[in-house]
Amino acid sequence: MARADTAYLLLYNLAQSIGWATALVQTVLSLTRHPSGDQVYSAAGLTVRACQGLAALEIFHAAAGLVRGSPVVALLQWAGRSNCLYAVLHCIPQLWPSSAVAVLFLAWSLSEVVRYPWYATSLAGGSPAWLTWARYTLFIPLYPAGVAAEMWVLYSGLPWIASRRLHSLALPNSANFAFDYHWFTIGLLVIYLPVWFNLYSYMLSQRRKKVGKRPSATKTE
Which among 143, 155, 192, 200 is annotated as catalytic? Predict the structure, then answer.
């Protein structure tokens, strides 16, 4: 990998590390002040949205060959989380006091404050064994927790999506095209668990390969 590419990816991963660490601190501080979790979105929502928006660059990273991996998979992973965050949670303030938001932000931020530093240290010459262990172990409880929280947010948002016709397009219109986001969200909920199980199984197989081995510097996000 060219030095410029490595420097760019290192900067990107450091920026995401700082951003998600900030989101984690904001979430934890909010929970200490308001244990019900009803103020978590107000405290950390902007930071989480910024970090998730920046993560769209990972689609470009894969498409341009800066990292190993499929740009289609990168797009699907980014779109799934972004749909929950931007299209549902941010657009329905009635959901902000939900305890699912605290679970969601904790699961996401705890995962990312390990994942991005692992990428950065790999680019810098090699991750320490403890960080590799954390990278391939903490997802075991955090990934299911995050997915469960995402599904709960989507499910809880259905009444407002339906009543407000959120992100929907009705006929007649100039494009002669109709789209019902309410039914789209229901369809997503139906396929969420099968898709999640496939990804989770893949990550478990990667854990068996990685844990206990000191990784070499490789192309990472």
Answer: 143
pLDDT given at position 213 = 53
pTM equals 0.90
Spatial separation of the C-alpha atoms in residues 193 and 147, rounded to whole Å: 8
Question: At 115, which amino acid appears?
Answer: R
CA angle 105, 109, 112 (to 5 degrees): 145
Catalytic residue among 41, 112, 136, 150: 150
What distances in angstroms separate CA 189 from CA 56, 106, 219, one per listed residue? 23, 21, 33
Residue 150 is among the residues annotated as catalytic for this protein = yes
Report the alpha-carbon distance of residue 185 to residue 11 in Å, rounded: 35
Residue 188 Cα to chain centre, angstroms: 16
Token reading at 210? 């990685």
Asked if 143 is an active-site residue, the reply is yes
- Indicate if the pLDDT at residue 16 is higher than 50: yes
Q: Which pairs from 128-132 meet CB under 8 Å and 24+ separation?
A: 129/214, 132/210, 132/211, 132/213, 132/214, 132/215
